[in-house]
Amino acid sequence: MLKKAPRNFLFIVIDQFRADLLTGALGRHVPLPNIRALAARSVHFRNHHTVVVPCGPARASLLTGQYAMNHGSVQNGVPLRRDIPNLATALRTIGRELLLFGYTDTQPDPRNLHPNDPAHLSYTGPILGITEVTEMREEAWEWLAHLRSRGYDVPDAGDLTALYRPQNDTLGGPALYDARDSDTAYLTDRVLAHLDVRKSQPWSAMVTYIRPHPPFVAPAPYNDLINPQDIPPPVEAAFEHPFFEAYHSRPSGTDMFWGFDGQQNAMAPEQIALCRSTYLGLAAEVDHHIGRLFEWLRNVGQLDDTLIVLTADHGEMLGDLGLWGKQTPFRAASHVPLMIGHPDIEPEDIDALTQSIDVAPTVLSVLGAASPSEMQGCNLLAPDRAYGQEAMVELELGSENGQGRFETAWQCPPDHCRALAFEKDGYRLAHFATDIEPMLFDVENDPDCTRNLAREDLPRLHHLRAEALSHRMRKGSV
């Protein structure tokens, strides 16, 4: 353990960043020198998973240390109760203020708001207890104002659609803005400018990068940094399942790139390759700017007295199994990086299963704060730590109006359109709340989940289902 609590705390959360950019086949094709350097001097948890998707619920679990079934914010736009403690409120008990540069995707508790309060209109607000310094919510007003001040033709009313139109309307073409003015560059500029006037005092900062989240458009030179012909194609499923049929029953993900019609199963190979290479280019851009943060820490002499934690809210299918985004029960959607670094923490690679609910209790312990009893995760750096042997991922597939693609395809109400991924002993179960057959994968030998063993290994399937049920029963209340 640390001799004393670190002076500073830097919490970096990258949106939609797959773990295999560091440890898998894609990692050989994307330059991430700064994140890799952090991993080398950190405890690197290489089998780490978010406990829920998509963005809002994932960040709620990351910050509250609770499964979504307990905090209740199971979809983007579902409010998070005000009485649930989180990392920011817990840090305040020891006099630390957590500064936010970016977003937490939190829909506020409506019981504390007037019916006409405009806070109801956005699910990308800040979580209770955090201090929003630089706003990078969905509307991105501050960044738009910056772009307009730089002479760009910026739309009014926070409409970013046209802003993410590549030059010449060509997929893979450069963004309309220069690299120095990108959302990633702007956010980093604001972090450095603000922390530079705070450097004489201890500080705690959460920096959340939206990239490499779609739309898949990157500024030069990142748009063609990665040759699409050099990277491996997506893995293909060697099985059929009703999930795929329902998933592709309607267009989705039309914001992936300019002009996309949402027909993900009809994308041309060239489109798939360009989306994948642009995603890697955006990840490389984020790495470059993370390097700027580390360089500033080094220059002001605070690198050795700053706890650095880096993770992602969730992953990205990136065309694997014919899917994009994160609304799936497969591993690519939940497997994310986690690294915790400080000179007093011995670097180590950990391959045991860990979960996003473990992050907040671990940080609080290192910084000298007590974890609220409501937090369900464990301290990953405890001297007597015994890592969990299982990981659970919750997934809401239903829609607000009850007429979404899964409800329609499966002929069931929204509250039956739920899935649960449960991983233990080298196997991953995908279980559905309606009458849809489960899936079972040997992730030790098939981490991409290409072969469904549910019909071949019934004893293991039934055993893992029982284990998942027991886990939910044990963790279903706080």
Question: How would you describe what is shown here?
Answer:
This protein is α/β, with parallel strands linked by helices and 478 residues long. The protein has one domain: Alkaline Phosphatase, subunit A (3-Layer(aba) Sandwich). Helices cover 27% and strands 16% of the residues. It contains 13 helices and 14 strands. The chain has helices at 20-23, 33-40, 55-64, 68-71, 87-92, 141-149, 183-196, 242-247, 269-299, 331-334, 359-367, 405-410, 458-475; strands at residues 8-14, 42-49, 52-53, 98-102, 131-135, 204-209, 306-312, 335-341, 348-350, 354-355, 390-396, 418-424, 427-432, 439-442. Strands 1, 2, 4, 5, 6, 7, 8, 9 and 10 form a nine-stranded mixed β-sheet that branches. It has a five-stranded mixed β-sheet with strand order 3-11-12-13-14. Helix 7 packs parallel to helix 9. The chain starts with 7 loop residues before the first strand and ends with a helix. The mean pLDDT is 96.
Structure described in brief:
By secondary structure, the chain is an alpha/beta fold.
